[in-house]
Amino acid sequence: LRPARYDDEVRIFTGMNQLAKARIGFEYRIESEAGVLTTGFTEHAFTDPSGRVIRPPGALRSKLQRVKDAL
């Protein structure tokens, strides 16, 4: 891992690495000319307006599944 400096041009790559019943995960890689600066991941839950975890609507899940399958 390396530091980025002010005015460095960086590239951010992201991909979906998980699609569960009520959760989606992404992984990240940040690079510069010097190489990989850092990597990471996040997990997100689908929730209703009150914050209760729910499954995503079927149409959205189908679209997300197609994206994941294409990776």
Précis, in short:
The protein is an alpha+beta fold and 71 residues long. It is 18% helix and 42% strand. It has a 3-stranded antiparallel beta sheet.
What would you note in describing this structure?
- There is one protein chain.
- The protein is built from 1 helix and 3 strands, in the order E-E-E-H.
- Strands 1-2-3 form a 3-stranded antiparallel β-sheet.
- The protein has one helix spanning 58-70, and strands spanning 11-19, 23-32, 35-45.
- The protein has 71 residues and is α+β, with helices and mostly antiparallel strands.
What structural class is derived from the secondary structure elements?
alpha+beta
Can you summarize the main beta sheet? Answer: 3 strands, antiparallel
Uncertain spans? none
- Chain oligomer state: single chain
Order of helices and strands: EEEH
* Overall form: elongated
Mean pLDDT: 94
Strand content range: 35-45%
Spatial strand arrangement across the major sheet: 1-2-3
CA-atom Rg in angstroms:
16 Å
Q: Could you name the key traits of this structure?
A:
71 residues; alpha+beta; 3-stranded antiparallel sheet; 1 helix; 18% helix; elongated
Topology (SSEs and partners):
Blueprint: E1 11-19, E2 23-32, E3 35-45, H1 58-70
